[in-house]
Input
Amino acid sequence: MLYLARIGRTLRSLLRDKKQPIQVDVLIGYAQWAKRYPAKAHNALMEIEERAMLSLLPHDLSDQCCLDLACGSGRYLLLMQDRQARQIFGLDYSAHMLAQARDTNEAFNLTQCPFLALPFAAETFDLITCGLAVGHDSNLKGIIAEAARLLRPGGLFIYSDFHPFATLAGWERSFTGENGATFKLEHYLHLYTDHQQACQQAGLAIDAVLEPRAGEHAPAGFQDWPVVLVIRAVKTA
Output
């Protein structure tokens, strides 16, 4: 409960000035966002990202043991369920988001933990997904190494990140809290070469990369810019 008290103290301090977007870490941010975060793609960015992710996801998961990292309110858990996954597990660092996931489906196997200390034995999963979350942590190599550790040989890691072009252009992941304040989540720039090197070092071979564009949802002059980077990597050893 100590981290909940910290969140409360920090929010009270930050909310004295609501005029400017307030940058917060993931625990504070998702504590404020969770109740407005349904288990579906609920904005244009997420819709673009989800279409790309699903195009790389196997259609039949009936023989697959699956894990969604940073599962949030359960969006990809539901999509795995739709594709008849044999077993489904979800992990998230935010207790508030996991509470939303439990409300989505109380039968989900959910665990609260950070990216770099995943509580499973090596070679447990056939498929691991992670939607729009690796950019919340500076240690991309550590995240990918942990995912690779949990994959069986031939297993897939399918994940997405805010596109580096978008990050360099100053775009942010922001939302309006229940109190009317605008929050922006901490986010770290990861270039494609960073993903490539991290996967290679972890024993993963990238076999598909998608960079869907913003299209009509972006401001004038940015419609042709990619907004997300979606990667599928296979464990080779």
In short: Residues 2-14 form the longest helix (13 residues). Residues 59-169+189-235 form a domain with the Rossmann fold fold (CATH 3.40.50.150).
